[in-house]
Amino acid sequence: MNSISKPLLQWFDQYGRHSLPWQAPHSSPRGGQSKPANIYHVWLSEVMLQQTQVSTVIDYFNNFIQYFPTLKALANASEDAVLAQWAGLGYYARARNLHKTAEIITEQFQGNFPQEFEQVLNLPGIGRSTAGAILALSYNQHHAILDGNVKRVLARVHQVEGHYSQAVTLNKLWQLAEFHTPNNRTNHYTQAIMDLGATLCTRSRPDCERCPISNLCAAYQNNTQASYPQSKPKKKKPTRSIAMLVFVKNNKIHLYKRPSKGIWGGLWSFVECEDTPNNIQKAQLTFDPQALITQHLPIFKHSFTHYHLLIHPIIISCHSTQAEFYPPDQLELGVPKPVEKIIAQIALAALAS
DNA sequence: AAGCCGGGGCG
DNA sequence: CGCCCAGGCTT
């Protein structure tokens, strides 16, 4: 069996992505880099890029390193300050683990990012693929990665049967990933196979005519590109309905910090309950017996990977509660996207009145 | 092995 | 509307 690494590396030198914000500047195509990669940047980008597309990450990455220029700065920040810059990116456990890892590295590794695979793998939020990517991209260590791009490329090259949510398929893909990863230029190869997946070997309409490894690709030879990777067995998504109670007092709104476990963990949100009159009344009275509903905003839908959420925002004015209230126009707290949406609507309504 | 965890973009 | 994205953690 032939490795795809040689033609892939050759293609990468000319057509790969060499100027992403987290890549070392002036990385020369062949033979090493004039400047070493900043492992803090590589680590941060790898975490941000988990289940998130490059185009989405770029702005968040640039903003994040403005606020937290170094690993030390990140470790010294509060979790809320980190979450505030992560808000909108999703999968908030990533941000909490990022912050925790910065603290661990500061305390246990004297502030230096570990260079041993097992140590990196043990850090929270870093699994097998991310650990391999960090060490390969930063130090040219010989490790395989297996992200969405690599899975798709290898599934096509080898016509791998089954979906990678099944352990058998995943193991096969890891074996193939390790087989193809070369001993030399592992850093460039790692970038190259991701670039190939992102720019040519795309999910729909792959550009096989420009692909440097089409002569090694079983799917191309058999014209079965559309059948790989095989699609995931689908399941129906349930729908839930909640009310978000926007308690207002002196032009400020009440928010509470959600528990780290569960949806929007660690972010700040409105009091919520099941969207029924009884539950709403109960929640309202519990918060403040004197509270009065002043407005119902239209119900809108927010979808997750595994369920749909119908959100019914209700504006409630109150007076006699001791709870914390915050000025909506200068929040320094991370809030979920739907909360941000509701706050924007309130601001508009206030402007109109 | 399966479920959970966001938000956006695309066909 | 369904699918997937530079996945990892929990159950």
Explain this structure to me?
With 353 residues, this protein is of the alpha+beta class. The chain folds into two domains: 5-227, Endonuclease III, domain 1 (Orthogonal Bundle); 239-352, Alpha-Beta Complex (Nucleoside Triphosphate Pyrophosphohydrolase). It has 14 helices and nine strands. The chain has helices spanning 5-15, 39-48, 54-67, 71-76, 79-86, 93-108, 117-121, 128-139, 148-157, 167-180, 186-199, 218-222, 277-287, 337-352, and strands at residues 239-249, 252-254, 256-257, 268-269, 271-274, 292-296, 300-303, 308-317, 325-326. The strands form two sheets. Strands 1, 2, 5, 6, 7, 8 and 9 form a seven-stranded mixed sheet that branches. It has a two-stranded antiparallel sheet with strand order 3-4. Helix 9 packs across helix 11. It is globular, with a radius of gyration of 24 Å. The mean pLDDT is 94. The structure holds a DNA duplex (11 and 11 nucleotides).
Which structural traits does this protein have?
alpha+beta, globular, single chain, 43% helix, 12% strand, Nucleoside Triphosphate Pyrophosphohydrolase, two-stranded antiparallel sheet, Endonuclease III, domain 1, 9 strands, DNA-binding, 353 residues, 2 domains, 7-stranded mixed β-sheet, 14 helices
In short:
The chain has 353 residues and is of the alpha+beta class.
Topology:
Elements: H1 5-15, H2 39-48, H3 54-67, H4 71-76, H5 79-86, H6 93-108, H7 117-121, H8 128-139, H9 148-157, H10 167-180, H11 186-199, H12 218-222, E1 239-249, E2 252-254, E3 256-257, E4 268-269, E5 271-274, H13 277-287, E6 292-296, E7 300-303, E8 308-317, E9 325-326, H14 337-352
Parallel strand pairs: 1-8
Antiparallel strand pairs: 1-2, 1-5, 2-9, 3-4, 6-8, 7-8
Helix pairs in contact: 1-11, 2-3, 2-8, 8-11, 9-11
The protein binds a DNA duplex (11 and 11 nucleotides) through residues 45-57, 88-94, 97, 124-130, 133, 145-150, 165-167, 190, 194, 197-198, 203-205, 231-232, 234, 237, 261-265, 302-306, 336-337.
